[in-house]
From TrEMBL, chain A:
Annotated binding of Zn(2+) 2, by residue: 148, 175, 228
Species classification: Bacteria, Bacillati, Actinomycetota, Actinomycetes, Pseudonocardiales
EC number: 3.5.2.3
UniProt record similarity statement: Belongs to the metallo-dependent hydrolases superfamily. DHOase family. Class I DHOase subfamily.
The keyword Hydrolase appears for this protein: yes
Protein name: Dihydroorotase
Record has Chaperone as a keyword: no
Pfam families, alphabetized: DHOase
NCBIfam families per record: PRK09357.1-1, pyrC_multi
InterPro entries per the UniProt record, alphabetical: DHOase (IPR004722), DHOase/Allantoinase_Hydrolase (IPR050138), DHOase_cat (IPR024403), Dihydroorotase_CS (IPR002195), Metal-dep_hydrolase_composite (IPR011059), Metal_Hydrolase (IPR032466)
Automatic annotation (TrEMBL), chain B:
Species name: Lentzea waywayandensis
SUPFAM superfamilies per the UniProt record, alphabetical: Aspartate/ornithine carbamoyltransferase
GN (gene name): pyrB
Name recorded for this polypeptide: Aspartate carbamoyltransferase
Lineage: Bacteria, Bacillati, Actinomycetota, Actinomycetes, Pseudonocardiales
InterPro entries, per database record: Asp/Orn_carbamoyltranf_P-bd, Asp/Orn_carbamoylTrfase, Asp/Orn_carbamoylTrfase_sf, Asp_carbamoyltransf, Asp_carbamoyltransf_Asp/Orn-bd
Biological pathway: Pyrimidine metabolism; UMP biosynthesis via de novo pathway; (S)-dihydroorotate from bicarbonate: step 2/3
Amino acid sequence: MKKSLLLKGVRPYGEGEPIDLLIRDGVIAEGTDPEAEVIEGNGAVLLPGFVDLHTHLREPGREDTETIETGSKAAALGGYTAVFAMANTDPVADNAVIVEHVARRGQEVGLVDVHPVGAVTVGLKGEKLAELGTMANSKANVRVFSDDGHCVHDPLIMRRALEYSKALNAVIAQHAEEPRLTVGAQAHEGENASRLGLQGWPAAAEESIVARDCILAKQVDARLHVCHVSTTGTADVLKWAKARGTKVSAEVTPHHLILTDDRLSTYDPVNKVNPPLRTQSDVDALRQALADGTIDCVATDHAPHAIQDKDCEWSAARPGMLGLQTALGIVVETMVRTGLLDWRGVARVMSEKPAEIAGLTDQGRPIAVGEPANLVLVDPDASWTVNGAQLASIAGNTPFEGMELPAAVTATILRGRVTALAGRIAE
Amino acid sequence: MKHLLSTDGLDRDQAIAILDTADRLKQALLGREVRKLPTLRGRTVITMFYENSTRTRVSFEIAGKWMSADVINVSSSGSSVSKGESLRDTALTLQAAGADCVIVRHPASGAAHRLAGWLKHTSTSVVNAGDGMHEHPTQALLDAATLRDRLGSLDGRRVAIVGDVLHSRVARSNVHLLTTLGAEVTLVAPPTLLPTGVEKWPVTVSHEIDSELASQDAVMLLRVQAERMTGGFFPSSREYSIAYGLNERRLKLLPEHAVVLHPGPMLRGMEIASVVADSPQAAITEQVRNGVHVRMAVLYHLLAHEEETP
């Protein structure tokens, strides 16, 4: 029989006195077991395993920057027990063959549940719906569809995608970027980009699409998820839409919670990301919106890029940054240390809400007897310095290089099996 | 000073030192049969132009040659750049080959800053000869030199910059330098051609040219680039010319001493009427002439040893 696991001296949700928690057959169990493998918690915070709705694992196509294996390691080390692998691979995950391949590779690696996201349109071109039903009914069981990286900008295609997804019990995750308003866009349209001569990416390009899509989703009574919210105005639109009963959810990235367009002045493309880094007042508004539930969850938009695609002039660089291993530290820094969220709030935005949005029934569950043991143990008092070369991803460039972040993942547990322990992948 | 990347951050003393050196170099060359100073003998200056340019490249080349530097021109076509070499590798290659100074023109804003970063641990200097929509510092310096020639000091002088400020590196460099030198700058353009946040710049903004002209000591016209004419920034070139072009009638609204500048290349009949371009108030050829002296001065400040005076 498989050994059970005993978490000694852990504090679920960071509340109350430390307790011991037994895990048997992948499920949280009652009592204790003298034979169990022991993890000493030393009072660490126990949370449901994190769920990332927005991860770029780059396989197939750019295995020089990340693979499902290295990305899974980064996820486990970051405290994740489930990730959603975006569809903008090469070839695009717009058919059952690719999504099944990604799901199967995820299972083979076995460090985190890898759920492929299917493309909304064929080739992410925004012209023709991909076979959403076939992907949903495939072994990959796709429930989240997104053209992320591209906006489903045609309002009729978007309407049809929203409507069609209702029968599949799926959600359309929109990368909100009005393409005509962002031709050649390089950075947040504001004082910094103006001074530096970088073509602006206006807030209105995001907000106008989010407003349109909320109205469409309400009209057809379908579910919409808004990827990487980056502006104050988008938060305002979401608040309005939710108030009138729209089935809309939204995510914010860790980098939009901490970095601003003040980073532009070095022209270092490690800070280039889409949507772009905004202003401090946007950062403040996003933190507030995450705290009050206007924005439902944190998603990393983990997007590894090769060094030659970053160590170049700004306009030639690709947008995107690593996120899986720095997400927790940034959420603690920006949301917990500021008093905006307690640990129950962290569980909500990093695990429970994203699981609910994606329709996962075995993730983001309460820490209670009989529940699947998808858990993360966090040392809230630790601090560590980001060193891109030591992160598990193949690509090592990160805007957080040298930054000191609070809190560290002590252990990640996937269905009772330890996947990461003390900063190492468990063998 | 190791690099000249922008006029943003160039302080008043540095700017005046460069302009004074340019004046001295101009005097030193005056009436010489052989226009050659030995100051930069043995130094290697490489121009790297990733965009088409006549006046700036030629001006830098002449500046280097008149200072006796060895000047080598590299363009993106006909070099390994056209084979896909990165800017970084090209820069490191030129540095390794012995460049004391790399002069770069590039369509990407910030390219010169990146270059300076990659060459941080070397002694190679970088001069920004125009990067995207960001800056063109030597253009601003030669404009300032021209205005000093015509007007004396720039303190308290009023300069209007008219046209496509949004996309203009010349405008950005001039706003910084002119205000550093004490001038008051007015930007005149339709709202579509003004950058976001311009209200926080140390300038006055106007959408109407006629009412501004009487109080100006100088007017600087910016070229309207062809691609803007079809980009929806204004309805037609005719309407632009009517609303913002410096024509003969508007020339008469300017004070008599006022100077008309244009960084070139000019579109006669568009932003500037032919008769205005050829009027005595226009200083357009002086700008080109001063360009050589200013660039000599820049090379001198970056490359010459302390003991070598021009």
